Amino acid sequence: MTVPAEVREHCREARGSARTDGLVPALALLTRALSPKAPPRGPRGHAVLPKELLDEFAAMEAEDARRDERRDDGPLPGLAVLRPADHTDATASDGADAHVWGTGLAWLRLGMSERLREACVAYLAARQVEGTSLLMQQMVKGTLADVLIEHLEIEGVLEELTDGSGGDGTLDRLQRQITRADRTLLRLLGAHGFTQEGPGPAVHASELLADVYRGEPA
Amino acid sequence: MSALPASLVTTRDQVRRWAGDLRAHALELDRDPDAVRRHLDLPAVRFLAGHLVPPGWDRVSDAAGAGPAHGLPTLERVIVSEELARGDAGMMLASPGASMCGVLLGVLGSQEQRDRVYGALAERPRWTCFALTEPERGSAIGEMTATLTPVGDGGYVLNGAKRYVGNAARADVGAVFARVEGTERLGVLAVLVDTADPGFRAEPLPTVGLRGAQLTHITLDAVRVPAEQVLGTHLPPTRRGMWSIVAVFNQLRPSVAAIALGIARAAHEYVAEHRRLLRGAERETYEELGRRIDAARLLTYRAARAVDRRPSAGHLASAAKARACEVAEDVTLAALALLGPGARLDHPLLEKLARDARGVEFMEGTRNIQKLNLFQGLHTGKVGRP
Lengths: 218, 386
Description:
heterodimer; A: three-stranded antiparallel beta sheet; two-stranded antiparallel sheet; B: seven-stranded mixed beta sheet
C-alpha cells in the first residue's frame, strides 16, 4: 500500500519531534496530521493520545457518536488512554487509516528510540569507573553499536515501506524490533532506566502505543 | 539434575499454595506501595517476616535465622522465591523480614548481631534494607564514596548517599556498605544502622514496576555506628570486605533469577488461562516459552546448589541471573503479543508483569555485570570445564 507524499512528510516530522521534544508532543503532531477528526483507534477500539487533544475530539464528536468508554491517565504526564466498553464498535471511527497510522507510529517510535540512545550516551559518558568513562567500556560500545545497526535497518525498511512496499506483518515486526532496541538501551542504564524520573516511563508509553495499534494475531 | 530433597518438595508445595494470596493484592500494591501494611497477616507475608514456619520445615534449630537442616539454603530460597514471585514479586519484595540483610548476617554477622536483629524482627513485622548502590556510581566497590570515619572506640561515623535501595523508607534496620576512611580502594565494611538514628533519611523513588519494593534514595549524614554494629569484626580481615560482598551476591543472585522465573511463569500461565485456544505458530511460540522457563530453572537450581556447596562458586549464579532475566522480559512481552492488540490495557495484571520483568534486570548486577563475571570465570578456568 502506497503512503502519500504528505503522509511521508508527517512521518518524518513525527520522528524528528520525538527525538527532540519527546513522545507526547510528537504524538500530538502526528495525530493532528493523520487523524484530525477522531482519535486513532487500534483494531480493538483502544486509543492512546495526548490529553490536549481529548477536548478537541470531544467537541468534534456528534452526541450520537460518543462511545461508552473509560478515559484514564497514560504512563506519561499529558497522555491519556481510551478503553472502549465494547469491542464490537471498534471499527466505527473517523480516525486514520490503520496502515498509514501504523507507519507514522513506527517512525515516531524510531525517533523515541533514537532519543533514548542519545540519552544513554550522555548518561554513560558522565559515569566513571576506574577513572574511565563508562561509555568507553568495550561492552558498552558494542551494545550501542548493535542498537545503531537496528536503528539504521529500521530506518531503511521504513523508508521502503513509506514508498509503498513491505508485506503484511512488516509493521508489527518493526515495532517488535524497536521494542527490543529500547530494552537493550534500558539495560545499559541499570536502575536509572526503571525510575519515573529516568527515561523508563517514555519507553513504557512507546511500548503501549505499539501494543494498542498492533495487528490482530494471525 | 538430581531430584530435590523431600523436605524441599514439601517446602515448594506449601509455598505454592500461598501464591494466590499475593496475586490477589498485586494490582493494589502496584497502585499503593504502602498497601502491604494492610496484608501483614497473610501466611506468605508472615513467613517472610519470620513469624511463621510451616510444619514439616526442616530447620537446624529453633533459633531465629537458623538455616535449613538439609543444608541447601540457597536452593531453598530459590524455590520459595520462584513460587512467591509467581504469586506477585511486588508483594514478596514488599514483605517485612530479614531478606537480603539475613543473607548478609549469615555471612558476616556474629551470633550477638544475629540475635539482636532477629530478636527485633520477632517482636513484630519489621522491614530491613541492604544499601550498597550509590548515586552515579552503581554497585562498583572501587567507586564507593560512602565513608566510615573511625571515632576511636571501634565505632564509626557514617556519611554518604545510597540509591535504589528497596524498603529503606519502611525499614527499622539497614545494612550499609561503606569505605573506611584512609584505607585502600577496596577497604569496604558492612555495618548495621538503626534507621531511626539521627542523620538517616530515606525517600522513595517512584518506579515503572515492582512498585511494592519501594526503591529509595538514602542520605547518611553523620550517622553513628557503635562498634557492636560493625559486621565481620569477629572474622579475619580477608573475610570482611570484598570476599563477603561476593559471597552474599553469589547467594542472592540465584534468588533474583528465581524471582524472574516466577514473573515469567505467571505471564506464561496467564496466557494459558486467557487464551485457551492457541494454534499453529502461536502454540509453538507458547510451548517454546515454556521450555525456556524450564531450562532457565534447571540452570538456576544448578547455580544454587553450586553456591550451597561453595560460597565462592558464583559463576553459575551469574549465568542463571542473566538468563532468567532475559527469559522474564521475553516471556512477558510475548504473552502480551499473544493476547492481541490493547492487551496492556485489557489485561492489567499481565501489563504489570511486563513492567516488573524490567525490574529484576539490574538487581544484584545488570546483565553486563553478570557477563563480566562469567568471562572472569572462563578466563581463570573456574567455569565451563567438564
